[in-house]
Specification:
The protein is an alpha/beta fold and 200 residues long. The protein has five helices and ten strands, in the order ααβββββαβββαβαβ.
Length: 200
């Protein structure tokens, strides 16, 4: 794993990704960025949504490989992605459930309040939570959880990764300061392919 200076050790039990994986993320990001725009014009709304769900899930899965949690928050038997929001469904993420990050499987579960975040390493916040996630972000920051959302201004509001659709292409922003405050170390490989946003 590529590291900035003073990065923490790779969490125990998470295998160090091979050197080519950084290039793989770049390729994945470019593919994800173009995939939405490549959909046929006649594609149904349902097909478009399914394609977007697959792309979003693939990007989130790859984010897992380029973050280091503090030693005292090392993932245990699984890496847990929590989903917060009325419109969020585990079915939207079935393509990555059970996939390994290193030698640790990724699991997905719904959460209903900040009180349920303690077992999560990542948290995806639905767009219906806009204006309501102040306490959630504060709790996630204290628990060293990587927060992700497609909500407008998410990074500016203190979230760590914001997925952004631009001209039919899915890209992502990163609030590096929010990651630091959560004691999460993001790989330089990830930072290179993101737009860095200053937030609260």
């Amino acid at each position: 794993m590529m590291k900035r200076q003073n990065h923490r050790k790779t969490p125990r039990g998470v295998a160090t990704p091979p050197p080519w994986l950084g290039r793989g993320l770049v390729i994945l990001t470019l593919m994800a960025a173009g995939a939405l725009g490549a959909l046929p014009a006649a594609a149904s709304e349902q097909e478009g949504r399914k394609a977007q769900d697959l792309i979003r899930s693939a990007m989130i899965y790859n984010f897992c490989k380029f973050v280091e949690w503090p030693d005292d928050d090392t993932p245990g038997d699984s890496i847990v992605l929590g989903l917060l929001g009325e419109a969020m469904s585990i079915d939207d993420f079935t393509s990555i459930v059970g996939k390994n990050v290193g030698d640790i499987p990724l699991t997905v579960r719904r959460v209903n309040s900040p009180d349920e975040l303690s077992s999560c390493q990542l948290l995806y916040i639905g767009e219906d939570q806009v204006g309501q996630y102040g306490d959630t972000l504060a709790t996630a920051r204290a628990e060293s959880i990587l927060t992700i959302s497609q909500a407008d201004n998410f990074c500016s509001d203190g979230g760590i990764i914001q997925l952004v659709e631009r001209r039919g292409k899915l890209r992502f922003f990163i609030n590096a300061r929010a990651a630091d405050e959560a004691q999460l170390s993001l790989s330089s490989q990830l930072l290179k392919v993101a737009k860095i946003v200053e937030g609260d």
